[in-house]
Amino acid sequence: MSATREVKLAQFEKMLRMRRFEEMVIRLAQLHEYIGRQHLHIGHEATGSAVALSMQAGDRIHTTHRNHGYVIACGGDPGRAFAEILGRKDGLNGGKGGSWHLCDASSGMQSTSAMVGGSIALATGAAFGLKLAGEGKISVAHFGDGTLDEGVCYESLNLASIFELPVLFVCENNSKAGQRPSSMLAAAKLSDVPQALQIHSVTVDGADANATRSTFAEAANRVRTTGKPVFVECTLQRWPGSHQVKAAFPTGVTDLALAFQPDRITGQHADWIKRFDPVLRSARSLVDGGDAQRDALVALDAQVCEQMEVARAFAEASPFPDASAAFTGVFA
Amino acid sequence: MPMMNLAEALIDGLIWSLRKDPKVTIVGRGIAGHGPEHYAEDRLKAEFAARIVDPPTSEAAVAQLGVGAAMTGLRPFVHYGTAVFAYEAWNQFINEAANVHYMSNGQLKAPVTFHLFHGIRGGGGPQHSGSPQAMYANNPGLEIVLPSGPRDAKGLIRAALASDNPTIVIQHALLLGLTEEVPEEDYLIPLGKADVKRRGKDVSVIACSRSVIDALDAAKLLAAEGIDIEVVDIRTIAPLDVDTIVASVRKTGRMVGVDESYEICGIASELIATVSIHAWSSLKSAPIRVARPMVPTPFSPPLEEAITPGAAKIAEACRRACAQ
Fold this sequence. Notes:
Largest interface: A-B, 37 and 32 residues
Structural class of chain B: alpha/beta
Oligomer: heterodimer
Helix content of chain B: 25-40%
Shape of chain B: globular
Strand order of the largest sheet of chain B: 3-2-4-5-7-6-12
Order of helices and strands of chain A: HHEHHEHEHEHEHEHHH
Largest sheet of chain A: 6 strands, parallel
CATH topology of the largest domain in chain B: Rossmann fold
Structural class of chain A: alpha/beta
CATH class of the largest domain in chain B: Alpha Beta
Number of domains of chain B: 2
Number of helices of chain A: 11
Radius of gyration of chain A: 19 Å
CATH superfamily of chain A: Thiamin diphosphate (ThDP)-binding fold, Pyr/PP domains
CATH class of chain A: Alpha Beta
Strand content of chain B: 15-25%
Strand order of the largest sheet of chain A: 2-1-3-4-6-5
CATH topology of chain A: Rossmann fold
Helix content of chain A: 40-55%
Strand content of chain A: 5-15%
Distance between the termini of chain A: 48 Å
Shape of chain A: globular
Order of helices and strands of chain B: EHEHEHEHHEHEHEEEEHEEHEHEHH
C-alpha cells in the first residue's frame, strides 16, 4: 500500500466518522429536545479531515461552534462527545459546556468559542504561546466567513502577520447567495483580505478531499518551516440542513451506495447530494482511482456506524451530573 | 383589547414609533427572536422595509453606527439578539453613548436604543445565558429597561425611542411567548415608574423582567400557605423608582430582591441597598437576595436549574423573611 493511498483512506475514514457522528447528533436532538439547536459540520468533512491530518501532536486548534467535526477528526472519543452534547456526567466537559463548547485538549482540540470572532483571536494567542515555547508547534484557527464581519478578525490577522506567528487560518466559507448569506463582505474573494496584510493565502474547493489534503499538508508545512501565518479559504456549498432549528435530515441519511449510482439520487436537494456531498465525492474518487473497492468502503461504513451506536449507548447510559457540580470549578 | 404575546407587542410598539417619528430607523433582524414567535417581525418588514437595515456581524461598528447617527438626530433602534453579542460593543455602549451628552456639556445627545435578549433560557450554556443589566447599570448616562410582559414591553419601547438618551431595552428570551391583553392604540409608559403587579401585606418582592413572572408564581404557592406577598416590578433600573419601592417596604416591613444578574454587585443587591438606606426603620427582618450565584451558567439541565432563580427559590426566601 503506497503512503498516499494510506493517507487517502485514513482521510476517508475520518470523513465517515464525522458524517455518521453528526447524523447521530440529529437523532439525539430528535430524541432529547432539551439539547437544543445544533450547528452541524455536514458538508465540511473534506476540510476538517484534511486540517486534522495536517496537525501533529502538540499542535492546537480553536474552533467555532460548528465544531463537532473537528472533535472527531482530531481523534476525540465520540461517546464522550455525545455525552457532552447530552449534558451528561461523562461528557468531554462534564456537562458544563454542551455542544457549543466541546473541547478535548489532550487531542489538540483546544477549545470552542461560540462567539463570532472568538476562535481566530484565541488561536492567534495560542500561536504566540507556542512560538515562545520554541518547540515548533503550530496553532490552527477554524472559523466561518462570518468571522470576517468582525473587527477582531482584522486585528488578529494583523497581529499574526507583524509578530510572525505560526497560525494556520482555516476559513470555511459557506456563505450562500439566495438565502441570507452568513457574511456580508465587500471583498469578492476572502483570501484577498489576509493577502493585503502580507499573509500567504490560498483558496481551495473545501469539498474536494484530494485538494484539501494536499493544500493543508502544504500550508501546515509552510507555517512550520517559516513560522509565519498562512490563510486557507475553503469554498463550500452550504448543506441544506446547516441552519436547522429543528433536527432533521433534509438530504436523508447518507447512503454510500449513491456515490456509485448517481441516477438514484432524487428530491429537492439532489443537486447538493450529487455534486457537493464530500463523502460521496471522496468515495467515488477512491474507487475510480483504484485506491479502494466499493465493498471495502461499504464495510468500513458499517463498522463506523456500529461504533457510533456503541458511543451513543455509552452517552445515553451516562447519568446527569449531580446539581452540586454547578458550583465547582469556577477557579483553577 | 386584543391578546398579544410579548414579541407581537414589541413589534406593535416599534410600528407605532416608526409611524409617529420619521427619525426612527431599525438596525438589525430577528427582533422577535428566532423561536416560535419570529413571525411577529413580518409585520414590521411588510410596513417599513425601507427603514430597516440588516447589518453584518459587526457588533462594535454597528453600535457606533447607531450612536453616531443618533448624534446627527436619527433615532436608531439597534437590535443585537442574544445580549452577550453586545459585549463586543462594550466600549461603544458605556464609553461613547453614555458619555456623549455629559462630556459635550449638553451640545450633543445620543437618542439610540439598543435591544437585547438576556437570561438563562434552557441550554444557553456559559456563553449565551448572560444577563448584563447590572453591568450596564454600573455606568451613568444609560437608561435601562426590563419589561416583564407584553403590555409593558409595548409602552416602554415607545418611551425608549422617544427618549433623548441612550437606552438599553433588555427582554428575557423566555418571555417572548408570554401573552396578555394589550391596548391596540398608541401609548407610552414613562421610564422610571415602577408598577405594583400584585398587592400584598406580608413581604415586598422587588423584581424585574422574568423574575416578576416568577414572583407572581411564587405568590400563588405562598397564598395557599397564608403568606400574602406584594410584587413590585421596577420596570426600569435606570432611572429607578425609589419612591414606589420604599412605599411598598414601609407597608410590608419585609423585602426580597430578585433578578437574574449576579448576586455580587447585581440588581437584587442594589435594590436591597436602596431599601436599607431609605426604609431601614420599617424593616422587620433582614432583606433577602435571590439572584444568580457567582458561577458561569452550565449547559447540563440539572446544573442550570440549580443556579436559576425561580418561583420555588423566591417562595423559600419569602418564608424565611416571614419566619424572622
